[in-house]
Amino acid sequence: MSDASNVPAGADPSTIFEAIRTETSQVLVGADRQIEHLTIALLTRGHVLLEGVPGVAKTTMATLFARVTGLESRRIQLTPDILPADITGTHVYRESTGEFELQRGPVFTNVVIADEINRATPKAQSALLEAMQERQVSLEGDTLALPTPFMVVATQNPIEMEGVFELPEAQRDRFSFKLTVDLPDRSDERAIVDRFAADPTLGPAAVEPVVSPVAIESAREAVESVHVAEPITEYILDLVAASREHPDVAHGASPRATLAFVDGAKARAAIYDRSYVIPDDVKSIAEPTLVHRLVLETDATLSSTTGATIVDEILADVSPPGATPETLTGPDRT
Predict the structure, then answer these.
(1) Which of 100, 121, 193, 287 could connect to 91 by a Cys-Cys bridge, CB 3.0–4.6 Å?
(2) Given this model, what pLDDT does residue 140 score?
(3) SS3 of 111, please?
(4) Contact yes or no for 232/265 (Cβ under 8 A)
(5) pLDDT digits (tens, 9 = 90+) for 305-324
(6) Cα–chain center distance at 246
(7) pTM over 0.85
(8) Which DSSP string do the residues of 79-98 spell out, in sequence order?
(9) Which of 131, 144, 5, 36 is nearest to 74 (CA)?
(10) What letter would DSSP give residue 227?
């Protein structure tokens, strides 16, 4: 197995991505796209919502990703009766000392795996809002910083109807990406069967950390230095504007989405070993960046129009920049 020493502290984002992808592929089959976007979110201080029917390895994927990145993780199984204090923590009275002692909740970790987030009540869901946006938690007047790096990877089942609470717009907007985990095709499912026939206990314990928190922080700094040319910025702004003007959309993407778009495109360029963003970087992250942020008109919802369909239409309608490599790389770049 690999170990974190294989990726030095100053490794570039592409080396880190390749190490994460290679190690997770020992367990996961056909999940390259999800691992790519999870890596992008990690390198841009973002959060990810994984959606899929039961049994497609959403939680396993999140746990594997946390393990190979060398980060501490904690899983929260969300249910209708979970309380905000069960997530953030509370002050507990200690009879032996006669004082209240702070008991930190599971949110105080590097990677929070919020399993079945839509089964928690809105009040419990809101306990994650401050943590996701501000990287801090307020407990009874005290403001406590969360560990660095900090990332929430939440899962939800799209087909359950009873005992679930749809995420409010403010909550969804704090996820950089929403990724759909589809059922595998026949060849991938056969590969899964063969792997588990060879090792019925195959799971997150089969992989090792291949990255360190120091390497992640260094890679984040490298992502920040990626160049975004003016035509690319205008292209992103055009896509976001189109999401607000689409006739089937009541409320389009927010400025937070625009920033996530720019950061995500920079990170994708970096993990593919480029110092500048190209239109394909923007197109690649368009659906996971926008789809969960669109609030559809009632008629569109009743006609089974989906956010993914609308994003496809937007990408088809908005022309990418016809820029040359010279204009994309920027001054003094190659």
Answers:
(1) 100
(2) 77
(3) strand
(4) yes
(5) 899 999 999 999 999 987 56
(6) 25
(7) yes
(8) -TT--HHHHHEEEEEETTTT
(9) 131
(10) B
